[in-house]
Specification:
Length: 348
């Protein structure tokens, strides 16, 4: 994906591919607003995979003066300074802010497919995704559990290899990875095993080195139970499952420590001692990440053969079309995607 030299830094990269997400959510609006602040906040060009007619209607409804150029990825960089490059989709969108429609599912999926294809073909340096909603996709026949699993399936189709995607919430003060993700809390202890912790932590360590430029990442591994189990007094999982994972990681040369009590892992002095927190379940990781920097935190998918970032929020149907959505997290996702792509290109 490295293509030469450019004014964006020592390494010239292809533009970023930004997908529309669910068009009934805030994705189109925050993409328009992200382009409007490009000179001050956006270090690299991006193009938006969307229905141009819907995007023009969104800009008109919100009173946003955004010139647009319908183009292909190759023309995005030249157009970006003076107009938002829009790569049109074959599937059109129905304009229904706040009301998700199964009729828009084809375009939502097409945008993801094409963004991933563009990265593999060298037309884009990374994929940045606006949020999607699962229900309208399911209603239209989508058979994957979610966005991330679909990206992993696309990667497998391209490479012939299975990939284990790992979610990271990356903010200016904390990087946090949940080992188990979208499952009920009552099922976490059953789903958790030593191998899953080791695999997740290894992927996090590898991507921190390859894409974040951290040569020897320091991993803080949380316990599952209060006080990391208090030596077995508050549950056996920390000694039986988590500690063996930490020992296995250290035996493989990874700087890992734990299990650590989660209630003392996230204050400023503790955070200074590690590069990523590996947490046992969804809220254990996401609550501190979002509490510390909700507007600046980015969802990064590790373990894929391409870079993918996304805002840390959802579709926000309740405010779609009202002109109040903030683009901060999307801008942070675009910035981080560019930075990761630059690190990866320089390491290649």
């Amino acid at each position: 994906m490295q293509t030469g030299e450019t004014g964006f830094g020592a390494t010239r990269l292809a533009p970023l591919a930004l997908t529309c997400g669910d068009p009934s959510g805030i994705g189109p609006e925050i993409a328009l607003r992200a382009w409007l602040v490009r000179d001050a906040a956006q270090p690299a060009p991006f193009y938006f995979l969307c229905d141009p007619a819907l995007l023009r209607a969104t800009a008109a409804r919100l009173g946003l003066d955004v010139p647009m150029t319908v183009t292909d990825p190759a023309g995005a960089e030249a157009a970006f300074a003076t107009a938002l490059p829009v790569v049109p989709l074959e599937a059109g969108f129905e304009d229904s802010p706040g009301t998700p429609l199964p009729a828009n599912a084809a375009g939502v999926i097409e945008a993801i497919d094409r963004a991933v294809g563009d990265v593999f073909e060298g037309h884009a340096s990374a994929v940045v995704t606006c949020p999607i909603a699962k229900k309208p996709l399911y209603d239209a026949g989508f058979r994957h559990p979610g966005h991330t699993e679909y990206l992993a399936a696309l990667a497998e189709a391209r490479t012939g290899m299975a990939h284990h995607p790992v979610m990271m919430l990356a903010g200016p003060e904390l990087r946090a990875v949940p080992v188990t993700i979208h499952i009920p809390l009552a099922e976490v202890a059953t789903a958790l095993d030593t191998g899953l912790i080791v695999r997740t932590a290894e992927i996090a360590a590898a991507d921190l080195a390859r894409r974040f430029g951290i040569a020897s990442p320091r991993l803080a591994i949380s316990g599952l139970n209060p006080h990391a189990g208090e030596g077995g007094a508050m549950g056996h999982e920390d000694e039986a499952i988590v500690r063996p994972a930490v020992e296995a990681l250290r035996a493989r040369g990874i700087d890992a420590r734990g299990p650590l009590p989660a209630d003392t892992m996230f204050h400023a002095a503790a955070r200074a001692g590690y590069d990523v927190a590996i947490c046992m379940y969804h809220d254990q990781a996401l609550i501190p990440a979002k509490a510390l920097a909700f507007d600046d935190t980015v969802n990064v998918t590790l373990g894929l053969p391409f870079i993918r970032t996304s805002p840390d929020h959802g579709t926000a149907f309740d405010i779609a079309g009202k002109g109040v959505a903030r683009p901060d997290s999307l801008i942070a996702a675009l910035k981080l995607a560019h930075r990761l792509a630059t690190h990866e290109a320089r390491a290649a």
